[in-house]
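In this supplementary section we document a worked example of the pipeline. Step one takes a protein sequence of length 186 as its only input; no multiple sequence alignment statistics are reported here. Step two produces a three-dimensional model, which step three serialises into structure tokens for compact storage. The input and output of this example are shown verbatim.
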Amino acid sequence: MTTVLVEGSGDQRALPILVQRDRGRRSVRCINMHGKSNIVRRNRGFEDTIRRQYALGDRSFVVLMDGDVTFAPYNSVQEEQDDMPRRTEALERELGAPVRVCWSILEMESWLIGGIQPRPTYCGLEGVGRIPDNTETAPPDPKQWLESRLQDSYSPKVQECLARHIDLSEAKQRNHSMRVFLDNIP
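The serialised model returned by step three reads:
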């Protein structure tokens, strides 16, 4: 089993479903880090969480973050993408366990949007229209895009529902970062 550190409760609920649908019996356990800032910070960030989980017996890790905004100590997503692999590699050497970092571009919701089928009748979707061919570039605000196409508000429950119902092969075709993440799950 792989332990995945995620930004929020919706990701925590949806990712195990996506991985199970893609990988069959392989599963992940997600830890909600309650925001990207808690993952990337230098003191008591993802490294300490992984060290604690390693001490408890976990042996494979992935850090998943949205690729739309960044927080200190980084000034840009590019700076973050340049430095986070260095940090995960150092932790990997320290623990002797695989530690990977992945980004959901733009957000994990981009993955879900990529798999929505025409005229969906699930999860409260309505008036969806055409899905972009590349959900890494459009829509620019995936959460707002979903919010405007739901009968009710967007929530972790909706994120979990979408993970159960989307066309996974379409989602992977429309979002390269989703394929990269799934390829990093042993």
